[in-house]
């Protein structure tokens, strides 16, 4: 591990073991890890299960609180908590999305969403928890409306990608949806006044597996003012840091970018303050060359007070890391 500027160090807090196949994705419960509520994390795997992990408040160590099984019949590819932290959505290669509810510490499957023709690859809730997006190998994106009583209704099926849709992600504050596909495009979807969803922009510069991280920006304030959609533009490319496929990138609240890749490594970047007139640029502040024994499939920053990062790997483990400044 190498530190840049000597400003940060990365501490491995704990390795979480229990999955018997590769771990595809991790998700922090946004309602946990704050105000005295123990931090909670979900992980999903090729072993067809989801594990819920919780931090012991007295010892600070992590333990497996629940194993969610006997619902999905194939790999569970994606998991995501609702903003309230009460519901967990899991997407599987069995073409279904399961909705789990935390009832007094026990997790019950309260709904199963069907409609995709085959593998569901990503699930994501919008900021208010009123909508859930799913996508899959059938090249489609589904938007589900959350109704009372844990009922879900398909509000729209979005067609437009020409290859598998690998990931969906909502904007953190607005009901704007991003979908990323093997067709080397990112599509941005928004709702018009008639409750119809349509593609408002296609980012064709998203060049797939080119070993780079691209940064885009828009005028969010102008968009939120109601003046209509404001396009996103490419402002920066980070290249030369990973030498194999980059699988996951996540931005922390403090603006620290973490990336995980097939080179078994995790990298950390911050915006450089060199005053470049060409737009923002980023520098690497830390790297861990052997974060896992195999591919790093997912990296996610926690919502809590600590700078915790969770990583999931083909080696079947989840690791909890803490990024700490060097004093």
From TrEMBL:
UniProt xrefs under SMART domains: WD40
Name under which the protein is recorded: Probable cytosolic iron-sulfur protein assembly protein CIAO1 homolog
Pfam families reported in the protein's UniProt record: WD40
UniProt function note: Essential component of the cytosolic iron-sulfur (Fe/S) protein assembly machinery. Required for the maturation of extramitochondrial Fe/S proteins.
InterPro entries: CIAO1/Cia1, WD40/YVTN_repeat-like_dom_sf, WD40_PAC1, WD40_repeat_CS, WD40_repeat_dom_sf, WD40_rpt
Source lineage: Eukaryota, Viridiplantae, Streptophyta, Embryophyta, Tracheophyta
Family the UniProt entry places it in: Belongs to the WD repeat CIA1 family.
SUPFAM superfamilies for this protein: WD40 repeat-like (SSF50978)
GO biological process: iron-sulfur cluster assembly
């Amino acid at each position: 591990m190498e530190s840049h500027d000597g400003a940060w160090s990365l501490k491995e807090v704990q390795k979480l073991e229990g999955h018997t196949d590769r771990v595809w994705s991790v998700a922090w419960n946004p309602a946990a890890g704050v105000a005295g509520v123990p931090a909670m994390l979900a992980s999903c795997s090729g072993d067809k299960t989801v594990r819920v992990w919780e931090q012991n408040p007295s010892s600070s160590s992590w333990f497996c609180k629940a194993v969610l099984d006997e619902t999905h019949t194939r790999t569970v590819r994606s998991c995501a908590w609702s903003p309230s932290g009460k519901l967990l959505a899991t997407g599987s290669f069995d073409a279904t999305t399961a909705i789990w509810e935390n009832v007094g510490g026990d997790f019950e499957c309260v709904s199963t969403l069907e409609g995709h023709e085959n593998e569901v690859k990503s699930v994501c809730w919008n900021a208010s928890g009123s909508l859930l997006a799913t996508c899959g190998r059938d090249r489609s994106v589904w938007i589900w409306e959350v109704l009372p009583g844990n009922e879900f209704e398909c509000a729209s099926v979005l067609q437009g990608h020409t290859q598998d849709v690998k990931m969906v992600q909502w904007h953190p504050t607005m009901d704007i949806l991003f979908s990323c596909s093997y067709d080397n495009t990112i599509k941005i979807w928004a709702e018009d006044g008639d409750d119809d969803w349509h593609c408002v922009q296609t980012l064709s510069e998203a060049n797939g597996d080119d070993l780079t991280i691209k940064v885009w920006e828009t005028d969010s304030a102008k968009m939120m003012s109601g003046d209509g959609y404001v396009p996103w533009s490419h402002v920066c490319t980070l290249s030369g840091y990973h030498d194999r496929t980059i699988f996951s990138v996540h931005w922390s609240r403090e603006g620290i970018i973490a990336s995980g890749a097939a080179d078994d490594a995790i990298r950390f970047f911050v915006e450089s303050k060199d005053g470049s007139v060409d737009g923002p640029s980023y520098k690497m502040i830390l790297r861990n060359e052997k974060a896992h024994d195999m591919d790093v499939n997912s990296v996610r920053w926690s919502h809590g007070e600590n700078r915790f990062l969770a990583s999931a790997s083909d080696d079947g483990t989840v690791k909890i890391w803490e990024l700490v400044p060097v004093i």
